[in-house]
Amino acid sequence: MPKELKEKAEVAAHTQGFSSLQETIRFFLTKFSRGEVSAELYHEPAVRLSPKADRRYAKIVRDIKNGHGIVSAENAEDFLKKLRS
Question: For a designed S-S bond to 49, which of 22, 29, 54, 58 qualifies (C-beta 3.0 to 4.6 A apart)?
Fold first, then answer.
């Protein structure tokens, strides 16, 4: 396997949450052997947000990271009480 291909595959594996390229290969081979994965591979193009939507979601992400608008509850009853208020 070309070194460049292996390096790109390792980065892609880690990006997708796999701990290693070996784990990725094992995952796909297991799914493939069970008939849970077909040999047809395709990639849907990413959805492009409008500039306005991009700003909106960037603000939402910032707020979450900074803890703004985040509420915690002690239990289900407390959660429902806060939800209804």
Answer: 54
